[in-house]
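queue> pop job 88
queue> type: inverse folding (structure -> sequence)
queue> payload:
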C-alpha cells in the first residue's frame, strides 16, 4: 500500500506499508515514512529492505516453531 496524505508529520510526504494477506488476515509487516515520491527514494527503500532481509535470513533459519499445547 502506498499513499500520499494532505496531513503528515513534518519532513514526510508518503507512508509505504507492506501488508501480506496470511490465512485471510492482512498483516502489516513493514512501514516506512518517505520524504518524497521520487523513484530514487523507492530504489533506496528496497535496497535497505533486501539488504536487511538477506542479513536476517540466517537468523530466521534458526527459529523453530513449537506446536502449542491445547
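queue> result:
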Amino acid at each position: 500500500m502506498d499513499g500520499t496524505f494532505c496531513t503528515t508529520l513534518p519532513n514526510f510526504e508518503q507512508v509505504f506499508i507492506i501488508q501480506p494477506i496470511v490465512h485471510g488476515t492482512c498483516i502489516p509487516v513493514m512501514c516506512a515514512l518517505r520524504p518524497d515520491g521520487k523513484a530514487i527514494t523507492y530504489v533506496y527503500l528496497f535496497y535497505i529492505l533486501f539488504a536487511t532481509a538477506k542479513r536476517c535470513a540466517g537468523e530466521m533459519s534458526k527459529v523453530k516453531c513449537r506446536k502449542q499445547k491445547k
